[in-house]
Amino acid sequence: MDHHHQRSDSQGQQRFLDLDAEVFGHQLAAVLDMAAVPTAGSIVDLGAGTGAGSRLLRRRYPEATVTCVDNDPQMLEQLRGQGFAVVGADLNDGFPALAALATADTAGVDLVWASSSLHHLTRPARLLSGVRRALAPGGALVVVELAALPRFLKERGEALLEQRCHAAAAAAGWNRHPDWTPDLEAAGFAVTRSEVTATPPVTTAAREYARQWFARFAHLPALAREDRQAVEALRVRFSNGIELEPRATRTVWVATPD
Ligand SMILES: C[S@@+](CC[C@H](N)C(=O)[O-])C[C@H]1O[C@@H](n2cnc3c(N)ncnc32)[C@H](O)[C@@H]1O
Fold first, then answer.
1. From 3.90.79.10, 3.40.50.720, 3.30.450.20, 3.40.50.150, which CATH number describes the 3-151+174-201+249-257 domain?
2. What is the pLDDT of residues 183-236, one digit of tens each?
3. Which atom of ligand 1 is nearest to the CA of 90?
4. Gap between the Cα atoms of 83 and 72, Å rounded
5. Is the CB of 65 under 6 A from ligand 1?
6. What is the pTM of this model?
7. CA nearest ligand 1 atom 27, residue
8. CA gap 101, 84 in Å, rounded
């Protein structure tokens, strides 16, 4: 892929993540409540993307240093522009050295956040044991994944089409992740696992986010031809008319040193 394509792909992905934050961002606040970390001086956001989690963490812990780790240069540029400390690193190589995280003078990291990022890794075990070692006493690791892709369509026939799109997306490996509990336990954590569901209002951003999901579904190889045509026909209706009922469930693992 040439540089121009990489850049526009990353910009498309940035817009997509920002829409998720706009539509479902308040769900992450509920997730953070579950971690029950009363104060934090040092926070690390793993696979921070465009900073949806980092901004929430900064609002919740205004005194803390929030360090964002990602391996996409465009994401890092965006995060730096928002005033975050950033570290460019491949998380498959493990947890970055504390010295790189501007926390060298502390007893460790109080809160590590990994939202929709762990499933991108081919070697998460090394990262998880590194997080375990880096955490300060009383610290926590919060792992978040979409339990299923967000749902938007309300009318029964359309909702069934959406289900088939999700099945085709699953066949293509989208959002594929395990129950992280055994991996976290193997890394030395005690784990609580729960789910948070959000049903946000139908806003312009929700309509745009739905439209973008369906634009992606249209290219799925496992989608039947008539479903592909139905998806194409739907796309023009997202900005007007189509009845939406946005809903997303996220799975949350709160892991504390055993
Ligand atoms: C789906 S996005 C999630 C972004 C953000 N955490 C959120 O919830 O909006 C996944 C992020 O993980 C980053 N990522 C994927 N693989 C990575 C790796 N091996 N090392 C570091 N970052 C990685 C991607 O660049 C992307 O920004």
1. 3.40.50.150
2. 999 999 999 999 999 999 999 999 999 999 999 999 999 999 999 999 999 988
3. 20
4. 17
5. no
6. 0.94
7. 49
8. 11
